[in-house]
Amino acid sequence: MLEGIISLIIVIFISPLFAGMINKYKAIFTGRIGAPVFQPYYELIRLIKKETINASSSSFVSKIAPIIIFLSMIFVSSIIPVGFLKPLISFNGDIILFAYILGLARFLQILSAMDIGSSFEGMGAAREATFALFAEPIFFFSIGSIAFISGHTSMYEIFNSILLNNIGYEIFIIVCSISVFILAITECSRMPVDDPNTHLELTMIHEVMILDNSGFDLFLYQFSSYIKLTIYALIEISFFYPFGKQNHFLGILIFIVGFLTLSITLALVETITSRYKMKLIPQYLLFATSIGILNLLIYTFMK
Amino acid sequence: MLDFTIFILLPLFASFLCYIVKNIKIHFFISFFVAIFHLVLSLLVFNKLYHTILPTYFGIDSISRFFILILSNVYFWVVIVSYNYLKRPYSEKVEESKKYYFLLLNFYLASNSAAMLSNHFGMYWVASEATTLSVAPLIYYYRNEESLEAMWKYMFTVSIGIAFAFIGILFLSLASKNILYDGRQLFYWELIKNASKLNTIWLKASFIFIFVGLSTKIGIAPMHSGDVDATSNAPSPIAALMSGSLRLTALLGVLRIFQIVTFSSTYSFAKSIMIIGSLLSLFVAFAYMFKANNYKRLLAYSSVEHLGIITLGIATGGLAFVGALYHSLYNSINKIVLFLMAGNIHYKYKSREIESVKSVFKNLPITGWLFLISVLAILGIPPFGIFFSEIKIFEGLIISNQWFILVAIMFFLLFIFVNMSKKVFEILFKEDDLFSNNYVKKEKFELIHLISIMLLIMLAVIPLSFSNTIYQNILSILNDFGMKI
Amino acid sequence: MENFFSILFSLSLFYVAITFRVKAYVSVLRFQGILLALLLILPFIFKFSIYAIILPLTIVLIKVILIPNYINKIILDLDIKRKIDPTIQQLTFLIIVIASVIIIFLLTSIISNNIELNVIPFASGFSAIVVGIYLIIFRKKLIIHVCGFLILENGIFLISTAIASELPMMIELGILLDVFVVVFLMGIALNRISDTFEGFEVSHLRRLKD
Q1: CA distance between the termini of chain B
Q2: How distant is the Cα of B94 from the closest Cα of chain C, in angstroms?
Q3: Which residues of A143-156 are buried (b: 16+ CB within 10 A; e: fewer)?
């Protein structure tokens, strides 16, 4: 119980830092000094102080959506294991819950974007829905195959039970981490699927949906997107947990090193790639899906 | 070791010499001597007057004895003709390809001999891929768009086909897993000895892959397109070489796997696949003859037809098998004459279209007569060889009670006969007002004509003389395949 | 460990299916060459012998250095545009590839009930053969056809390691040499084609018909 609360707190409070780290590295790679690592915290504090103004055409959906999204993010982050701490919520089949709570968040996001009635937001919503269609199978194929290997269906149990003498596991790490990385990029609207920094409505996906939000609502949206990024990073890192099973110190080390390398990798990818054309994104996602399928195939025929 | 040197190392060395020396006349003399040595040795080997000792991966048995004789026979005549052929002025660009002509020809001889003498599927594969590589640049002799396209297509389809054959070879080694152990895998005789123990599924898969893969090179439908393009656009000696010997090299690979299959339970399966392939190629040739507009292509399709007949004979077994082997010999000789004469016509008229070639008889009387005779010979008119071998194949079909196939083939052959002779008569006899009057220069009697006459005589004499050595050899091949007449 | 390399191999096939650049094909060829060389060295890690090192070294020389460099040179010389010009949508192509890979894996596993077989390397190799053929069918540029042919060859090589067929060294070397010469000749032919037809696409090769 205590472990679960600690891990939840870690996830929530470290998430803006993760985003800040990515931005910092990105700045360094492009030859700038960049904002301080803690900049996301300052921005969140700034936002929380401001007043919320909703569009006059909006209904109650716009009011409740940010809160529900934020709560569902917190809920999801209490499923994911941090290091070897047992998460708050852990039962058989929670990977399904994990996926669908994220789905709920996305649904509300789309709904609230359409609620405002602006054409830009509607466009963003449409894109989000389309790409979500391609992104969902990636999750199920990659995490599903890991679940198959371990024989468990709970996030914590999966990574806690995998034995390293299973020869196939190294393959899974490589194959799965590629597909989950692409998934994370898509879900968190990073490059090359979406560029979080530009404000060009025609090409944006995630940012365009929250154009008309402000103040506390915007704070919740921003914070949820930071948490989401951290959650996917944690999934990626948890593939490496089985290596540190012997002692807890190693587990923590893997966590920290994984966090650092992931932020560097994300920054690197964002620096060296340019945003794909809209029509190329589905096939990019299908590529990740195919990796997931390959993963499942490998599992099935490994024996 | 002398045999290995003459069959393989000497041509290799000759092609190396052709690389150093730049004079085409010297090239020709080198190649000529190599060809003579090769022919003499293969005649000696064929008559069992020379006892061969070959290194590992090479060996000689009755079937390779027979095929290497065909190869060196075709090669010998082609080399003799080649020099005359190269001397013809054609265009500026061709000068460049002349430099590599004999080099590649010698390399072709080396690799083809290696393919025929191999007794290991891996060696066979390497060598037959090398034959493709040596022939491909020769197809591009004229340096024009058509020949370039033909070369590209031939190289591509055949390389892919051969790659498939390699998969088949791998499957064969899978089929012999746990039966043959290290160092003995993929040798023909080991596989034949253990044929009944091989895994049936893999053997079937292997047969399909090897047959389909090599059929790109044999020119069996539906994989014939690259081969037909190449044969119809290559210079005539090369076309003769391809029709007469290169296709048989690929056929040899099919024969090798077929030999293994005959001793196993997959026999009937393999038979039916080969019969389907051969009927398809006969059908393709039959269909093409109706709308043929290019006489070299016509000959290429005639090759498809005859290789189809040979495959059919092999698949039927027994007497038809004997007929098929005779047929491959006669076909190879006949094709030389046909392609050389077609080359003469092409050289004169600068066109391969049937429409633009008229009244050959008036302008090129000798060539015209020889072309007519050789066409009649290839269509199965006695006293030329093709007639006798086809009769044997039909007899074999009757004996094995395959009336249905016989009827189908008779039907196809009848229409091929009618249509092909119609097209050829159009070339030979149709009057052309523009051409005939101002072109009265008498055709000179050249070496090519002499050779063609000799080959035609050979074609008539071999079946009539009932040559015993050939018959004995074919019987021993039959024995190797476990068949009886 | 064999499985590990063959899965990376299949991953490279998926990459081939989505990439838009000609150069990416060359890098994939290089990558596959490295994988094949590693696969060959693998059984000999603990019992080192000079005999065992010859073949992997030749593979590195031919498949990793010579052929990709040669193709790169052709691309540079002929000034081939970097886009690949597919004849069908990349998305459809990728779906076709995925479907075929799934079917191949399933079939291989069915077959492997019958005979002892390394499923994953075998299926990956076979997928490479199929993908190579698809590349030849669904692409316009001739240089990509050459790449497709080479991917096909790599697949065959992978199969031959999967079924542990003991082809004699001399013959393996002969095969590699043959493949290299094929690519070399194809390169020359490509040069000629770009001279004669002023282009290097399949659509130019339409002169020969029945």
Answers
A1: 36
A2: 14
A3: bbbbbbbbebbbbb
Indicate whether this complex's ipTM tops 0.85.
Answer: yes
Q: Is the pTM of this model over 0.95?
A: no
Query: B198: alpha, beta or left, given left = phi > 0 and alpha = psi -120 to 50?
Result: beta
Q: Do C171 and B130 touch (CB under 8 A)?
A: no
pLDDT tens digits for range B175-210: 888 787 767 788 888 888 888 888 888 899 999 999
In a domain, residue C183? The reply is yes
pLDDT at B39: 93
Residues 77-116 on C with a CB inside 8 Å of A are 90-91, 94-95, 97-98, 101-102, 105, 108-109, 112
Q: How far is CA B31 from CA A29, B110, B243, B450, in A?
A: 66, 12, 20, 20
- Tokens for B164, please give them: 């498939």
pLDDT band at residue B94 under the 50/70/90 scheme: confident
Helix (H, G, I), strand (E, B) or coil at C123: helix
* Domain of C16, in residue numbers: 2-203
State the total domains in chain C: 1
Per-domain boundaries in chain A: 2-301
Q: What is the pLDDT of residues C49-61, one digit of tens each?
A: 777 788 889 999 9
Report the residue of C165, C169, C176, C196 to disrupt the B interface, i.e. the one with the largest count of B CBs within 10 Å. C165
- What pLDDT sits at residue B394? 93
C155: left (phi over 0), alpha (psi -120 to 50) or beta: alpha
Q: Which of C162, C175, C159, C158 is nearest to B123 (CA)?
A: C175
Nearest to A175 among C11, C98, C105 (CB): C11
Look at residue C52 and tell me if it is in a domain: yes
Inside any domain, residue C68: yes
CB contact under 8 A, A283 and C90: yes
Structure tokens at B161: 């086909």
